[in-house]
């Protein structure tokens, strides 16, 4: 069964070799050049948000690696195992906001 090029491009998104990007706008697929982000400057708030995300990922991975901590977190957050990681990241972000984003929240 042959798939037409139109149907193939309809669901395509992502990038190829950091040269070409496929984007979805409504029901249309747009092909564009890969963006040059070398000269971007982040605001202090964006930098801090990236730092918090890095810390949250580290903490979530640490908890997920320990079976006892993972089970305790799953019960505490009342989520299924497939939603635990994102719930841990969300919890970390909430704690960081409550702490005023100036210090690392306690787990």
Q: Pairing-aware structural class of the strands and helices?
A: alpha+beta
What radius of gyration results from the CA coordinates?
Answer: 20 Å
Q: What does the main sheet amount to?
A: 3 strands, antiparallel
Q: Which spans of ≥5 residues are poorly predicted at pLDDT below 50?
A: none
Mean pLDDT metric: 86
List how many beta strands DSSP finds.
3
Shape type: extended
Short description:
Helix content is 50%, strand content 14%. By secondary structure, the chain is of the alpha+beta class.
Provide tags for this entry:
3 strands, 50% helix, alpha+beta
What does this protein look like?
This protein is an alpha+beta fold. A three-stranded antiparallel beta sheet has the order 1-2-3, with no helix packed on it. A hairpin with a 3-residue loop joins strand 1 and strand 2. The radius of gyration is 20 Å and the shape is extended.
List the helices and strands and how they pair.
Elements: H1 5-10, E1 14-16, E2 20-25, E3 28-33, H2 44-65, H3 67-77, H4 84-98
Antiparallel strand pairs: 1-2, 2-3
Helix pairs in contact: 2-4
């Amino acid at each position: 069964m042959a798939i037409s090029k139109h149907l193939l491009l309809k669901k395509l998104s992502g990038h190829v070799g950091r040269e070409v990007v496929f984007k979805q706008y409504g029901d249309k697929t747009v092909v564009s050049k890969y963006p040059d982000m070398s000269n971007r400057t982040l605001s202090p708030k964006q930098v801090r948000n990236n730092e918090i995300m890095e810390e949250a990922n580290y903490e979530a991975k640490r908890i997920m690696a320990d079976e006892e901590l993972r089970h305790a977190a799953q019960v505490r957050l009342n989520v299924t195992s497939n939603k635990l990681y994102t719930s841990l990241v969300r919890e970390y972000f909430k704690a960081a906001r409550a702490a005023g984003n100036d210090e690392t929240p306690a787990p």
